[in-house]
Design the sequence.
């Protein structure tokens, strides 16, 4: 067989290109998931987690849910309100529902501040603005943060209409008296917020705030399950949500 | 040769300065890292084995930890099936450090020697160690 110099060069070129294929494939394989990764056995598998807060049952001056949450998640207690970090907190009715135009509301509502937390929106504006995808929405509706990825740009804080996010202006470990070793702290320069106790749900436990509430004012469950406590509560009672007109579809409901 | 005196002195000074790092550090080699795996938790194990073989862990633990992180945080998958079929929770604090509770003797030995500074412990809580 006669081979020309031109053909020889063509085949050589193809061979060189072929050599490049294997390392490329390997590079893609590095991004693969760990072999045999799976959820925990006893994870509460739900399709859409939500919370219902029964305002009438929530006692004045009670901080059980806040203390429990902040202890479990190593949320620091910082006196300076400019630096404060909060996953769950309380605020007055007029601040929680500024769009409610009723001039006269029950005295109990004016007196007792309502518990507030991340609304785990179905259409979360924080996720849309995050430039690094550090904040994302899981298929079970939990709006999660990957603190490893957060660059501290605070776009999400500007986007969140509920003030659910806090920025670590100082090292949060300075504000921690004791640390829960099972859950990480955060570092200076990242944003943080409530994660609906994703790490507890994975172990089959309900969120820490719901567990801590003696009055059963906080109800947690799966909205896709018609027999769940939240579905039943919302079927029986009329509930309102914060700023529904914004279209964020918050999944924390308030029974007034 | 013109100015040979100055040139030779200059060359000598240059040679001394150029080789300064070599002779200044002579005999002061940092001791090779010697990570300790003699924690009480490991001593109690019947078969002393990690989630993967030692050689793999030595070379690939950073990739493994990155894959674990992404799997847990982003995919909700928290259980790891090792090559030998055993299952482990994918967690630095709750799996790795339960056995390797000696961070200064285990992690820091090599990391300091190599001058790498992983930011794990900025957030994750290191186990308490006896002084």
Sequence:
């Amino acid at each position: 067989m006669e081979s020309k110099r031109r053909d020889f060069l063509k085949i050589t070129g193809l061979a060189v290109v072929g050599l490049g294929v294997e390392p490329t494939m390997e590079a893609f394989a590095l991004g693969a998931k760990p072999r045999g990764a799976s959820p925990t056995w006893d994870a509460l598998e739900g399709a859409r987690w939500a919370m219902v807060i029964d305002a009438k049952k929530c006692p004045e001056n009670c901080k059980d849910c806040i203390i429990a949450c902040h202890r479990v998640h190593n949320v620091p207690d910082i006196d300076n309100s400019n630096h404060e970090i909060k996953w769950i907190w309380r605020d007055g009715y007029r601040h929680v529902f500024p769009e409610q135009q009723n001039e006269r509301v029950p005295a109990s509502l004016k007196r007792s501040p309502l518990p507030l937390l991340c609304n785990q929106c179905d259409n979360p504006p924080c996720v849309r603005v995050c430039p690094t995808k550090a904040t994302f929405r899981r298929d079970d509706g939990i709006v999660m943060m990957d603190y490893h990825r957060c660059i501290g740009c605070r776009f999400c804080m500007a986007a969140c209409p509920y003030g659910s996010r806090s920025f670590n202006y100082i090292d949060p470990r300075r504000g921690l008296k004791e640390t829960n070793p099972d859950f990480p702290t955060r570092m200076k320069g990242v944003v943080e917020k409530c994660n609906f106790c994703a790490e507890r749900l994975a172990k089959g436990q309900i969120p820490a705030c719901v567990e801590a509430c003696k009055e059963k004012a906080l109800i947690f469950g799966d909205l896709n399950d018609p027999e769940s406590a939240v579905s039943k509560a919302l079927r029986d009672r009329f509930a309102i949500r914060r700023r529904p007109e914004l279209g964020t579809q918050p999944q924390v409901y308030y029974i007034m | 040769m013109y100015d040979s005196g100055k040139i030779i002195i200059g060359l000598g000074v240059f040679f001394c300065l150029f080789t300064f790092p070599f002779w200044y550090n002579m005999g002061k080699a940092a001791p090779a890292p010697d990570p300790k795996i003699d924690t009480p938790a490991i001593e109690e194990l019947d078969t002393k084995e990690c989630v993967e073989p030692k050689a793999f862990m030595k070379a690939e633990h950073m990739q493994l930890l990155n894959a674990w992180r992404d799997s847990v945080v982003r995919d909700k998958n928290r259980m790891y099936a090792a090559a030998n079929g055993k299952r482990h929770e994918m967690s630095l604090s709750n799996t790795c450090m339960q056995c390797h509770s000696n961070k200064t003797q285990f992690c820091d030995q090599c990391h300091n020697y190599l001058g790498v500074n992983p930011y794990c412990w900025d957030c994750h809580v290191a186990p308490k160690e006896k002084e």
